[in-house]
From TrEMBL:
The keyword Transferase applies. It holds the Pfam family Acetyltransf_1. Residues 3-181 form the N-acetyltransferase domain. It comes from Streptomyces glycanivorans. It is an enzyme of class 2 (transferase). One of its GO terms (molecular function) is acyltransferase activity. Its EC number is 2.3.1.-. It comes from the Bacteria. The keyword Cytoplasm does not apply. This is GNAT family N-acetyltransferase.
Amino acid sequence: MDYVVRAVRAEEWERAREIRLAALRDPAAPIAFLETYEQALTKPDVFWQERTARSSAGEHGRQFVAEASDGLWAGTVSVLVERPAGEPGFGEAAEVDQAHLVGVFVRPGHRGRGVVDALFREAIDWSWSLTGPPLQRVRLYVHEANARAAASYRRIGFVPTGRTLPMEGDPTSLELEHEIRRR
């Protein structure tokens, strides 16, 4: 694989913005992300600068990118650290110390080349390496109709927990929780 997987750096906010906008233009975006391309376009530069700076600091989360040999960011994933004593994460307050993978995206021309596997390995390894109370699991949610993503996650080792949440903006659709437990 000709990709380098690494954490995003604060000064790369324009590239972080570009890959997010590309993700939101993907045909799967309506069931994969909780914001639209149009919503993201309205956010000022300072939003992207602060978001990227927080992601690079790695205190409560981190964004990882897979950089192709030509410098293009082929994919990305973000990790949010959720602790029982912290703010409620996606859906509900954390019952255990955990990480939550969000914002998963691989550009169409780079799919099927191991990019998502490499991104997830880096995100999971980073999650297990954190100081403080050890994280017990890494979780993610996938829309019930996103079979391609769900198959990738299962192949990597995520298993369904049986927990579901109604899709934001469409309560007739479900988000299915998957997890990897710390060994």
